[in-house]
Amino acid sequence: MTVGRLSVVVTRRLPEATEARMAELFDVTLREDNKPMTRAEVVQAIKTADVLVPTLSDQIDAALIAQAGDRLKLIANYGAGIDHIDVKAARQHGIMVSNTPGVSADDTADMTMALILSVARRIPEGLAVMRTGNWDGWAPTALLGGRVSGRRLGILGMGRIGQAVARRAAAFGLEINYHNRNRLRSEIEDELGATYWESLDQMVSRMDIISVNCPHTPSTFHLINERRLKLMNPDAVIVNTSRGEVIDEHALTRALRSGEIAGAGLDVYEHGDALNPRLRELQNVVLLPHMGSATFEGRVEMGEKVLVNIKTFDDGHRPPDQVIPDLP
């Protein structure tokens, strides 16, 4: 707990309600535009602030944390994913890290289903035909897609989002399969109607649709690589609403160009907003600008969690969403 009002620096524009509440509670420095802070600006902020509120666009690595002032004691991340923060380095410097888990699971699962439907039923291609004025009327063989009902869905990562995807997919008549670091309890499997695959290779080779819903960690980097893409059926599709680094983007681009797989739906990319230009050229891929959690309600709820984490810390307690690093 600090003496006086807590000094808080926010790196991006947040919902108005969140910013207004922060201004009431803390001595807050808000971002005036929606551009990410430069690294130099973040370094300057952490030299004097008690709390930093970053987002996934801010790389809070060990070198940056080493430049923090003595006052910085909490990094209250706006978002659930924390792979852009070196949590171990923060701990070594006596800085707590918190995040906003459990807020965007349903929103991201909705977007996962939207991508599955968009790729399978060629919705963006239909939209392009209409917008360019090239529609000549209904035809029996025009823009034929694939039926979703009855297809085999393989979910990679069965946490909150993966389970939310499973519930939605089951309602569309998809057969639910999953691969996860740890197998779910039998009662959860029964509720979801989900079949566990211990071998990711075997699951990938037998699915019609792969949904990537696992976090990015050293063990999941390029989990979907060239070898595993070659295991997929030629009429299979893959969607990713999790983290871009889980898929080898260059290998995916080659597989899509060569017809080794039928299509892909992507909301996240291996190198952030530095999109592989060859992906833009492909008709069999649906590209979205990281919209998975982009709902008004979700963004406000994330802000509420940030506020609770900071206020709890200011009151002398551990934030409810404190992230504890995995120690060797």
Automatic annotation (TrEMBL):
InterPro entries in alphabetical order: D-isomer_2-hydroxyacid_DH (IPR050223), D-isomer_2_OHA_DH_cat_dom (IPR006139), D-isomer_DH_CS (IPR029753), D-isomer_DH_CS1 (IPR029752), D-isomer_DH_NAD-bd (IPR006140), NAD(P)-bd_dom_sf (IPR036291)
EC number: 1.1.1.-
One Pfam family here: 2-Hacid_dh_C
Signal peptide: none
Top enzyme class: oxidoreductase
Family matches, as SUPFAM superfamilies: Formate/glycerate dehydrogenase catalytic domain-like (SSF52283), NAD(P)-binding Rossmann-fold domains (SSF51735)
The keyword NAD is assigned to this record: yes
Keyword Thylakoid: no
Domain spans labelled D-isomer specific 2-hydroxyacid dehydrogenase NAD-binding: 113-292
GO-annotated molecular function: glyoxylate reductase (NADPH) activity; hydroxypyruvate reductase [NAD(P)H] activity; NAD binding
Keyword terms of this UniProt record: NAD, Oxidoreductase
Domain D-isomer specific 2-hydroxyacid dehydrogenase catalytic: 8-323
PROSITE patterns for the chain: D_2_HYDROXYACID_DH_1, D_2_HYDROXYACID_DH_3
Entry superkingdom: Bacteria
GO cellular component: cytosol
UniProt similarity note: Belongs to the D-isomer specific 2-hydroxyacid dehydrogenase family.
Protein's name in the database: Putative 2-hydroxyacid dehydrogenase
